[in-house]
Amino acid sequence: MAVDTRPPVEEDIAPLDVPRRIYAFFHNKRTGLVLILAMVVLTLLGVLFAQAPAGVRDNPEAYASWLESVRPRYRGWTDILSALGIFRMFSSIPFLVVTSLLALSILACSAHRTPLLWRAATQPRTHVTTAFFDHGRLHRTVTLPAPPEESMERVRSMLGRFRVIEDPNGPGLNLYADQNRFAPFGTVVAHVAFVVILVGVLITSNFGFEEPSFTVSVGSTAEVGHDTGLALEVTAFRDEYHPDGTPKDYASDVVLFEDGRQVAAQTIRVNQPLGWGGVTFNQAFFGIAATVAITDADGGVLHDTGIPLRWTTDDGLYTYGVVTLEDPGLEVFVITPSSGQAERTIGAGEARIEVYPLGEMQPLASQVITQGTPTVIGDLTYTFERESQYTGLIVSRDPGAAWVWAGSILLMLGTCASMFFRHRRLWVRVLPAGTGSEVRLASPDRPDPTFRSRFESMVGALGGGPGEDT
């Protein structure tokens, strides 16, 4: 037998076949399953591994400092995990790609299924075979003494709000009835809702931010950053306590500026945030600050506001805060004894100043200074003026919140439609039986306690006794 040695002819792909094949790829169930699994893996990595805060991810120096803070935890894997984008997973390119592809897959599946659901709702199959009435999930046969026409009218009257369509094909008299015919579209709504939520999450991940520890000393102004042009001044702070010492209420009087122009003034409490231009300021915590003035050799003021003493040393003996002086390239730590701690090297009205080169771990100088006394350390003069309070706020911008809320509402509506308003279908056939008629009822739909009860009630009312599943 001769063997055909000619090379195989490559199949030409028509230009219109390309979008069709892409569409078929995305609405394929296997594609959707693979993308869902990929998203689960990436999300799990984002949950298991520490994520760099929003204000740190886009600042190389801040990100490098943050990496050093987590290095003791991840050790030699730190740089590898960083290179793979694990520490910024929810804004990483792999996560964005998988999320976008999954959204396209969901939309393609919804678009593929919608015409089928529409056809089932508007052009249902009304004729079934005789065997169907013997094998449907719900099926019963009732014999009535009335003629077929009268028995069919009796069945019609019992269907109530069901949509009824007559089937002119024999044998006998036939009809199709259904209820909640558009309920299956709830799954499409739920799928679209999931895409809307994904869009909201992506918008917030890439264009939003959250500063969980935005601190401002009373009498000071701090820049919000993140290209908002906003600055917040705290003019006063009040705190009240219960008899047992627990906080009763604390509030910050603030003034908000945008590009140097005052745009808002409000008292912020835990349940009374300030919002402006999509940015929200929520009261979160408070504490003690140290007002320290720092001047250079020419008398130029480098810093003259409060430094929040936000952190406590591991042994609990000291509280400290830090200010960064960009021009000299220094980090200045201000350290005082913790409340209730008897510490001898730092007395009442004193603070220890530690000066570090920016990004270095070895101090240039360390000295205790007395309140009200200017002290020269290195090339700068430090004056510990007084202790004050600071307020801690959560500052956030969530541009995707509206999308998430809209998607959540759609998801709830779609789920309720598909779960609680099921599409119920019933086929009825009435045949002559001697001087009376035989009424056969059947439904292939999955078990539904409400519909089963309705089915049994109909059978019982027709005189057939309790309904059965067979």
Summarize the structure.
The chain is of the alpha+beta class.
Helix content bin: 25-40%
Shape: elongated
Number of helices: 11
How far apart the termini lie comes to 59 Å
Which structural class is indicated by helix and strand composition?
alpha+beta
Number of domains: 3
Integer-rounded radius of gyration = 36 Å
Beta-strand fraction estimate: 25-35%
Note the main sheet.
7 strands, antiparallel
Number of strands: 21
- The average pLDDT score comes to 88
Low-confidence stretches: 466-470
Describe it:
The chain is an alpha+beta fold and 470 residues long. It folds into three domains: 17-116; 124-181 and 423-462, 2-Layer Sandwich (TATA-Binding Protein); 209-397, no CATH class. Helix content is 34%, strand content 34%. The chain contains eleven helices and 21 strands. It has helices at 17-27, 29-48, 54-57, 60-74, 78-83, 93-122, 132-135, 148-158, 185-207, 401-420, 449-462; strands at 138-144, 163-167, 173-179, 209-217, 221-223, 230-241, 247-258, 261-268, 274-276, 279-295, 301-303, 306-308, 311-312, 318-325, 330-337, 350-357, 365-370, 375-377, 380-397, 424-433, 436-443. The strands form four sheets. Strands 4, 9, 10, 11, 12, 18 and 19 form a seven-stranded antiparallel sheet that branches. Strands 1-21-20-3-2 form a five-stranded antiparallel sheet. A hairpin with a 7-residue loop joins β16 (350-357) and β17. It is elongated, with a radius of gyration of 36 Å. The protein starts with 16 loop residues before the first helix and ends in an 8-residue tail after the last helix. The model is unreliable at 466-470 (pLDDT under 50).
